[in-house]
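PROTEIN DATA CARD
Card holder: Dehydrogenase/reductase SDR family member 7 isoform X2
Chain length: 357
Origin: Cinnamomum micranthum f. kanehirae
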Amino acid sequence: MITQSIVYTLVFVSAKTRFIIPLRFLLQPKMLTLILLSLVFAAILAIFAKFATADGDFTLMSKGHPKREEIEDKVVWITGASRGIGEILAKQFAKLGAKLIISARNEAELERVKAELVGKHAPGEVQILPLDLASDEDSLRVEVQKAESFFSGAGVDYMIHNAAHERPKMTALDVTEEALWATFKINVLGTITLTRLLTPFMLKRRKGHFVVMSSAAGKTPAPGQAVYSASKYAVNGYFHTLRSELFQKGIKVTVVCPGPIETSNGSGASSSEQKRTEKRLTSERCAELTIIAATHGLKEVWISNQPVLAVMYLVQYMPTIGYWLMDKIGGNRVEAAAKKGNTYGWGLLFGQKKKSQ
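Structure generated from the sequence above:
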């Protein structure tokens, strides 16, 4: 018995020693530092891996799903709703139970969109409101009054500014006065006028939310799209300022900055070669992320695949590097656009421009 006890004691001490020695080794300052650095490095790698596959900024990606309770039974007015992202937004808002007002210049296309909507209040209760943002202020005032009168005068809860004017890519010096005026009339002046006319109604109710479909071109230089880019910078400035002035009075603003988006009905100006080589986000995904941003009350979001998303981060947080990068690819992008090639790939940095076949 004594011998057996001695054996058990030696085994226990031996096991304890084997455990204590590695533990003491790991607790040494140098080893702790190495372990900590390894963990930090692993975390950084994980973040970069997540970023490389992300199609939105980090805050947006953390929000999960749209909040249905923020949309259901609310009045949502969408401009540019006859095609592209506007049409998809209408379909997704309808599924979430929104009461929709859809606007565009083409009433026949609006009728088509309405017939395809499915939801708690769709298609039967969907209101069609033909609208041309190039109209004068008096005409737009009438349309705002109509929108406010729908649904027994409930008033507009969400104004989705989606209508936009975009011309084929051209250099900053090739832009005509007509193109300059047409772009700013729709993208800036008409949008701001509609907002000025609608906001007083929202202020009376002390609630209202503007969702502005801007662009990555409103956050970074966009070689070949100088005027379009300028119009989006202008819209961003106006709506961020509007929010800062009226937020405490119940007015919210979400500015959405999408990169290249794939559309199936001609709302984009991409050639077949561009569609084949450019990695564009789908309209469905863009609309989904837009609604997530709005229902979570985000102030500005970026929606894009890489490399455009990375460029937005660089210009925002490391402007010297970001603008250097854009200067490096600017001329190549203009040439690629003229040849209907890839205008969004990393190859532009090295002059590897895709040619149309």
